[in-house]
Amino acid sequence: MDFLLLPVLSFLIGIIVGLTGIGGASLITPMLIFIFQVPPAVAVSSDIVAATMMKIVGGVKHWQQETLDCQVVKWLALGSVPGSLAGVGILYLIRQMGIANLDEILLRLLGFMILVVVFLGLGQLVIKGFFPDFELPQPPKFDLNTSVGRIQAMSVGAILGSMVGMTSVSSGSLFAMVLIAFFQLDSRKLVGTDLAQAAILLSFTSLGHILLGTVNWGLVIPIWIGTIPGVMLGAKLCQLMPQRVLKFAIYTLLIGVSCKLVY
User: Fold this and answer.
1) Where are the transmembrane segments (predicted)?
2) Is 78 exposed, middle or buried (0-12, 13-18, 19+ CB in 10 A)?
């Protein structure tokens, strides 16, 4: 493996994440599988551990700036953390029982998860671009001051957390859509809340994958070297780039990646 190429590509992916907010897992995991020929189970685990540091740095920064909603973070995390550990547990059982090929399952799960993220993101872009006055029906807002609202938040967190535990995808993308739809956070707190909950979720998920024994630290460290400065640079460039065009190009790329993973 070319250990110079990995941090360089990770740096470019970090810039993309900083520019667009699109989750790095949707790009890093396929990169490890297709370019570096890493087995899917190792790629997923290593990507989760690598992404954790990036999310923690961003989450702490937003917490210091008070640009996050701590109540939303708490109730989502109470569902997503056990959900993610359950996802890792499912992978462990599949591996131990030997009833199916773990890498084949992960390839298809990755493909389907990336497709979900891509089509939801593309749908938003198309509606905003071609039908700016169109108003989508508003889903009910979760009221975290009530028991029902807390259970709803924990349930959504558990479902998405299990997906993250099994595939590494959607720790940011799908949670961001949930924050917009069901919590209706303003833009000032949206990014910070998303990063903070992802930092908590991935911290526990990383422990599960480390115990699973499929983390390759020879991959994790070069990814850290590339993505962390890349994200910082991308965040600074964010206001200079046309977001809609850039996101459309990346989503188009991800459609091809996800179809190759599935088929």
Assistant:
1) 6-29, 41-60, 72-94, 106-131, 151-183, 195-213
2) middle
Q: How far is residue 88's CA from residue 85's CA, in Å, rounded to a whole number?
A: 5
| Cβ atoms of residues 26 and 116 within 8 Å | no
Q: The tokens 């690598």 sit on which residue?
A: 50
Instruction: Tell me the pLDDT of the chain (263 aa) as tens digits.
Output: 567 899 999 999 888 777 766 666 778 888 898 899 998 888 888 988 888 887 787 778 778 878 788 999 999 999 999 998 898 888 788 777 766 666 677 777 777 777 777 777 777 777 777 776 666 566 678 899 999 999 999 999 998 888 888 776 666 667 877 887 788 777 667 777 888 888 888 888 888 888 888 899 999 999 999 988 888 787 777 656 665 666 676 677 667 767 766 66
* Alpha-carbon gap, residue 128 to 139, rounded angstroms: 18
Q: Residue 33 is encoded by which pair of tokens?
A: 């599988």
Sequence letter at residue 31: M
| Element holding 124 (H helix, E strand) | helix 102-130
- Report CA torsion sign: 251, 205, 230, 177: positive
